[in-house]
Amino acid sequence: DAGVIQSPRHEVTEMGQEVTLRCKPISGHDYLFWYRQTMMRGLELLIYFNNNVPIDDSGMPEDRFSAKMPNASFSTLKIQPSEPRDSAVYFCAIAYPRDTQYFGPGTRLTVL
Amino acid sequence: SQQGEEDPQALSIQEGENATMNCSYKTSINNLQWYRQNSGRGLVHLILIRSNEREKHSGRLRVTLDTSKKSSSLLITASRAADTASYFCATVWGSNYQLIWGAGTKLIIKP
Questions:
Q1: CA-CA-CA-CA torsion for B47, B110, B82, B46, nearest 10 degrees?
Q2: A68-87 b/e with 16+ CB inside 10 Å = b?
Q3: φ, ψ (nearest 5 deg) of residue B83
Q4: Rounded CA gap, A105 and B8, in Å?
Q5: Over the stretch A75-90, which tens digit does the pLDDT of each residue have?
Q6: How far is the C-alpha of B40 from the C-alpha of A1, rounded, in Å?
Q7: Is the CB of residue A42 less than 8 Å away from at least one CB of chain B?
Q8: Residues in B touching A91 (Cβ below 8 Å)
């Protein structure tokens, strides 16, 4: 977990509210990934960036989800409006060196 | 996006015994990796084996890869209570940097 900081660690919100998840990776990585993990669907890749540029967002469930990476040390995943089915643990991960990924501790999101 | 399937889905053994988990995948690969996830934590990289390698060791871990059968196994020797976790295999193929994940094996080590 040491290479990636995620905040908040836990988020409880009501349906319809906007949720912003944050990721602060260590410097020197090339790739940043956002994942979602649920018991039903396992670990799903939502989007990944290479040198701060989104490469593949085909895993983003729908237009309610958006992700940005304004610089190499910060990324956000936003859900607007949130729905109960978005409840999951969201992980940010970086790849350095190539192929091996280092995960943050995750954000547990509960949408009531 | 899951390509791999771990077998068994769950495994419960006594401390000190060896634990073996298997992973099967569908396409050709560049490498295969194993990760561990403790409850409530992020995944931690354990070991990577390249497609031209057949066996690799790291401490109490031994990984084998059979590309003809598209399968891999992870052996943990002399298991400890701290090995209790879920174990995932993930593959990389082509020039794509994505990891394709299996569903995981939940390992419980009984004291």
A1: 10
A2: ebeebeebebebeebeeebb
A3: -80, -10
A4: 26
A5: 999 999 999 999 999 9
A6: 12
A7: yes
A8: 42-43
